[in-house]
Each structure stands twice: as C-alpha cells, then as structure tokens.
Amino acid sequence: MYSRKPFYIIVAVLFLAGLALMLQRHFVYEIPWLPGEKRQIWSIEAKVEFEAKGKPVKASLAIPGSQPGFTLMNESAASPGYGLSFVEANGSSRAEWTIRNASGHQELYYKVDMMLDPFAKAPLSTQLPAMMEAEVAEPYATAMDQVLSLAEVRSADGITLTRELIKELTNRGQNAELLAQYKEPGPLLVELLHRAAVPARLLQGLQLEDGRRRQPLMDLVQVYDGEQYELFNPATGAQGRQEQMLLWEYHSSPVLDLVGGSNSRVTFTMLEQEQPINVALAKKFDQPHWINVSLYNLPLEEQALFKGILLVPIGVLVVVFLRIIVGIKTSGTFMPVLIAMAFIQTSLITGLVGFLIIVGTGLILRSYLSHLNLLLVARISAVIIMVIGMIGFFSIIAYQLGLTQGMKITFFPMIILAWTIERMSILWEEEGPKEVVKQGGGSLMVAVVAFLAMNSEIVRHITFNFLGLQLIVMGVVLLLGNYTGYRLTELKRFKPLVDEYKTDGHKHD
Question: Is the peptide bond between 6 and the residue preceding it cis, with omega within 30 degrees of 0?
Fold first, then answer.
C-alpha cells in the first residue's frame, strides 16, 4: 500500500517554512500583523547662526544617528553658497559647511527625520571616556571635596554616587551655591565624577515637543559602572533614558565647532507627524538584503502588480474549499477567481450586473450561432468578438447615462467570458437550463465569496507583507486535495435514512 508519510512531511515543511518566514518578517523587520498601523516621525531642524569675519569659514555641527528608541530616516541641509560634507570625526557624525569668504550674519540649516522606533538597536558608545581630572583653584577644590565626601558616604557605586551628588548640588547648600558659580551643572557633575575616579561623559540631548521653536540642547551625563552605563539629567536628577529624549551629541565633542566666525548659537525647531507603517519601514530597510524577502524592494509599478497577483492564491483556496468540501458546482475550475479579480476592479454590484448582462446577452447570440453549424474555433472566435463588442457597447451606454461605474466592465477577462458563454450554451443544449442555472449560480456564488476574501484589507496586508503565507496556503490546498469524503451538499441524500430512523425510533417507543 502506498505510504502517505512523505506527503504529510511535505505539508508540514510548507507550514513550518511559511510560519517561520512570517515570524521573521514580524520580529526582525517589524511588519505588523494588522493594517493601518502608523509610526511617529519627528522632523527636527537645527539652525546655526553666527557672525562671519570676512575670511574663510568652517562650521562643523554634530548630528544625530540611529540610537536606542530612534531610527534616522532622512537628513538634508540648506547652505546657499557653502560647500557641505557629512564627515566622521572621532566616531561621531558631523555636518561640515565651508566657504572661502563670508561676512556678516550667517544662517545655516540642517534637517533630520527621526522615527520613534522601539526596535532600534544602534548602541550608544560603550567605550569608557578618558578620565581628565583638571586642576581646580580654591575655594572650589575644597567645596568639591566636601560635596564628594558627603555623597560617597551614602553611595555604593558610581551610579548611586551620581544620584547623591545631584542631590547635594540641588540642595543649594553653601558648597552647592559656590560650585554653581564655578561651572554649569552638567560639566560640574562630570568633573566631580572624574575626581572620584568614576568614568563619565557629557552628552547633549533634545527634548522633543511638537511644534516647539528655537529650543536649545540640554546637558546629560552618561555614567559607567562596570559593564553598564546610565544616563542622568544633572538639572533635575532624572535617571534613565527619558521619554521623547533624542541624544544629539553623545561623544563628548562640541555641538558646533566654528572657525572664522563669532557669536554662534544653535537652536532647534521640531514637528511631529505620522506616516503609514509601510512607508516608514520602506525607508528604514531601504537597502536590499538576502534575508529581507520584501516586495518593497521592487519598483512601485511591480509592487502594484504583485498586490493583485498575490491575492489569486487566496481566491484559489476559496474555490478549492467550496468545490471539494462543500461540493458547489462551477462553470470552469478557476473561472470564479478571475471573475472575483474583475469584481475587485469594478466593485461587487457593478461587476454582478455587468457579468449577468454580458453572459445573458451572449447566450442569446450564441444560440443563433448554433444554427449555423460552425467549427469550434470559428464559433469561439465569433463569441470573443461579440463579447468585446458588447463590452464596448455597454461602456458607451453607461458613459452616456453618466454611470461611470458601468465603464469598468472592461476589466472583465474577455476570453474567459467567451469560454463561459460557450460552455453554458453547450450545457444548455445537453443538460437543459436547470444545469446552466446551477453551475452559473454556483460560479457566481463562489466568485462573490472569493471576492469578499480577496478584497479584505487584512488579507491584502498579510498577502503582500508576509510572503510566507503563500507556502501555508499551498499546504492547505494539498491537504484539501487529499480529502476523499462526502461533500456537504451530498449529505442531503441521507435525509430519507434519518427520517426512517426517527420513524423506527417512535415505533419502538
């Protein structure tokens, strides 16, 4: 006896491979299971202003990159008359403007789009910063030592020492008041930590608020303790990465390095917007990769084509289920799928009316051709020409009446309609009108169900974004093809037996 084991192994492999591809698309490339999801995009513009001195100018601005919580999407700059380059310096990215001669007030602009992204993995620098303990004049040195001694008693490591130092500096005691005149809270905290041999560096962050203009950067301190690091806001004492906080400069470099100018400042304007998930992710994963099996890498024309093609297996699955399991008869095996595709283009009601008009008129004309005793090829050719003529005629009539939806019947597959008319005409002659209504009605019903499945927004989203679904559909079709039991429509044959059983049961009672 033939073993079915290889068959079930193939089906299992199809299921597992399809599921693995879908999970990979979801967890690695962040494609959501349901449509309609959007991603938050922050557009941030940095404005650099300074006074040029009538000689060569070189302005180097620190710029952000992808980091935990944010993915860089686009960046651009406006600099009339300036040369512009994006360079790497000391591990950080910078925008560098240059010009041979400039004088007077100058304005340079840099714009970046950052996507709020919980999956962003680009790490901050984990390299320990250089320890620089500067010479401090009195009385500041004594004040720093006293603040350190008080904080060290109440701390256990570098992280807790930072917390206690911030408390001491914000308590506004005598030492804190004195040190406030020495340096700003951020640089002061870093210097205190270096004095205590704790690795730390000063960062510059931007608090994102929709619609805010001319905002400055704020100081943040990155403190290391062994293998881990923590961020602190020295002004408020807040610990950890704050919500909507974008790190603009995180390598302890100057935010703006200017040569040939004076009175410089950098301010920021920000705007929040939302983009559909497919647009945002297409920009994020714009570099094709062999494991990124995505149709977004194709040109838009091909993407639009595949959006329709990938729905066909869903329609095929519906036809297989309704024919094998339910037992609905159709005129042609997969003609309902093609009709359903036409319904997607025309809308359901317009498509049904157009289909019935064309097929009904075609059957009347075909009945005349049957009396001419033509050969099959000539007869089919004549039917095709008639179908084209009818589609053109009804489109013109619909246009004259102002029914623009009626013009969409041109999307019907003409060859398939011609064969449908031919098959139904022969069936009428051989089996009678009852069989024509049965198969024609069955075809329309299957086409409507296939249309409802294929036209679902969820189905469209999943078929286009998760190509692994095609393998799962293939496995289901193979399983359905292995079914040899009764169709649901055949169960009515057993109704007399059920009635007889009920009658016998009452007699025994």
Answer: no
